[in-house]
């Protein structure tokens, strides 16, 4: 599977490492849900991920290691959230990021 769209599903939480088996995933759309928090290991194992949609949620902070294992991430959509805190180094492994 290369694309997974879970947008508009009223998701409130995503358990850490739930996407780990989807190692070939390139696009993950979690937009327009009710997500408030992202865990450090939420995107663990998604080394091929290029597009991540987190727009239109209720995310308030980005932990330090949340994107550590997504080094191929090119497009990260975070608009329309309530982000008030971004940890130092939250984006440090995203050298291929083109759109934020």
UniProtKB/TrEMBL annotation:
Keywords: Leucine-rich repeat, Repeat, Signal
Ligase is among the record's keywords: no
Keyword Manganese annotated: no
Protein name: Uncharacterized protein
Source organism of the structure: Exaiptasia diaphana (Tropical sea anemone)
